[in-house]
Amino acid sequence: MPTECIAEQLSFQGIGTRQVVADFTGGAVTSDAGGLLLREVAEGSRIVGRFAECFVDHRDPGMIEHSVMELVAQRVYALALGYEDVNDHDELRRDPLLATLVGKTDPTGQSRRREGDRGNPLAGKSTINRLELADPERAAAHRYHRIVCFGEAVDRFFVDVFLDTYQTPPTEIVLDVDATDDPLHGNQEGRFFQAHYGCYCYLPLYIFVGDHLLLARLRPSSSDAAAGVLEELCRIVEQIRQRWPQVRIIVRADSGFARNEIMTWCESNGIDYVLGLQKNSVLCKTIQRQLQKSRRRYLQTRKASRRYRDFRYRTGKSWDRSRRVVGKAEHLAKGANPRFVVTSLAKAEYSARPLYEDLYCARGDMENRIKEQQLDLFADRTSTSWLRSNQLRLWLSSVAYVLLSELRRVGLKGTELERAQCSTIRNKLLKIGALVKVSARRVWVRYASAYPYKKLIATILANLQQAYQPIRV
Q1: Does the pTM of the predicted model rise above 0.90?
Q2: How confident is the model at residue 84, as a pLDDT?
Q3: What pLDDT sits at residue 138?
Q4: 246-274: per-residue pLDDT in tens?
Q5: Is CATH 3.90.350.10 the classification given to domain 165-376?
């Protein structure tokens, strides 16, 4: 006869004559003890604190238990640790380890004002939700949604964080620009059907420099992929050059951004570009001889064959001048695969093959960064009714990415996880089981004894403390 399970007790397959049972009465146990590394990054770099400064709080100071800084930190840490939903915070609000990350002086929550809140040191889902849904025009007088995020400040924040990672200015940076789809499953504001992706979605725009995120802009998918790019580039380049007036800037993107106005602006402002160019009959005819040679070579070797041609090209109407174009004449098992890029870079600096294979093709790494945001940090959880609050959710996800990227750049430098993706960092370094004990003088975090990366954690902590030593108090 099956035994009756008591409330919240789980019965698993037994071992020999022993039953295997489990419940949720372990007390102050966390599965996210590696999050202490994130706090070291946040405190040393002030990433979360600086992001919180982009908000204005219209609440009555005498009635506040959770500051804007604490609310923002709670949401960002939770995203970094794998908790994508606001609903998760009704359970997470009890976690003394997360409260420690946030900076709560009482991680047990026993000093809360209301008796019903005691034991819950953090904010619940309703309070977090109010953080995300405020309307800037009504916040000052609204009863609940009284915390406002200022977009201009957030835009400057991402670029400033990137600039602050360099002690001395680099000689050259490459701005990678790309758009992606963010599928929608409701009636969100700005929802449109995008034929290219075959779904209702947003069309967020991203700009990266290597692993560094400079822009995450949520846009309706009814707009063109290049819509607003020129304005964003103007703002970002101006901010960069205020700090680094001599740095060389190259803009890199696919064919969706090879627009005359973007290229003309780059040429007028001393900025180089290498952009994909949509193939057409004129371009394909120009490299016809190279395509034939590649085909003959493929038939001989049965291996992919490619040749390049460097030439000048001008469209019939859309371009105001001729520009350098590099054509790749490639033949694969599936047939001819011609590709083209347009660039302002001179032949003397980049010949055709290195321009395409070494410089242009490197833009593919940006797609991995976008995947990290969407798959690992839930940038696609844009399920509120309003575009502005979905933009804030994208920013919160972006800050979580910046935090993990900084951990990777500083803490994991020289280790076997130096190039690990965010999901790998989370699974191996952040999701660690531990007992948490809070005393009058200490917060004890006792990691699982069988944790296999003990030495690596110590190395990462040493790297972080050394890097942020001038900043630490």
Answers
A1: yes
A2: 94
A3: 85
A4: 999 999 999 999 999 999 999 999 999 99
A5: yes
pLDDT (0 to 100) of residue 473: 46
Domain ranges in the chain?
Answer: 29-149+386-467, 165-376
Confidence label for 27 from pLDDT (cuts 50, 70 and 90):
confident
Angle, vertex CA 29, rays to CA 23 and CA 33, nearest 5? 140
Helices vs strands, H then E, count in the chain: 16, 19
CB 121 within 8 A of CB 104: yes
pLDDT value, residue 470: 63
Per the listing, tokens 């009482």 go with: 106
Q: How far apart are CA 473 and CA 248, in angstroms?
A: 36
- In angstroms, the CA 297 to CA 207 distance is 39
pLDDT tens digits along 83-102: 999 999 999 999 999 999 99
Q: What is the mean pLDDT of residues 445-458?
A: 93
Three-state secondary structure string covering the chain = CCCCCCCCCEEEEEECCEEEEECCCCCCEECCCCHHHHHHHHHHHCHHHHHHCCEEECCCHHHCCCCHHHHHHHHHHHHHCCCCCHHHHHHHCCCHHHHHHHCCCCCCCCCCCCHHHCCCCCCCHHHHHHHHCCCCCCHHHCCCCCEEECHHHHHHHHHHHHHHCCCCCCCEEEEEEEECCEECCCCCCCCEEECCCCEEEECCEEEEECCEEEEEECCECCCCCCCCHHHHHHHHHHHHHHHCCCCEEEEEECHHHCCHHHHHHHHHCCCEEEEEECCCHHHHHHCHHHHHHHHHHHHHHCCCEEEEEEEEECCCCCCCCCEEEEEEEEEECCEECCEEEEECCCCCCCCHHHHHHHHHHHHHHHHHHHHHHHHHCCCCCCCCCCHHHHHHHHHHHHHHHHHHHHHHHHHCCCCCCCCCCHHHHHHHHHCCCEEEEECCCCEEEEECCCCCCHHHHHHHHHHHHHHCCCCCC
Percent of the chain with pLDDT over 70: 98
* Count of Cβ atoms closer than 10 Å to residue 347 Cβ: 12
Average pLDDT of the segment spanning 345-368: 96
Distant-in-sequence contacts of 45-48, Cβ < 8 A, 24+ apart: 45/161, 45/164, 45/406, 45/468, 45/471, 46/471, 47/161, 47/399, 47/402, 47/403, 47/406, 48/72, 48/73, 48/76, 48/77, 48/399, 48/403
Residue 241 identity: R
SS3 assignment, position 308: strand
pLDDT at 28: 87
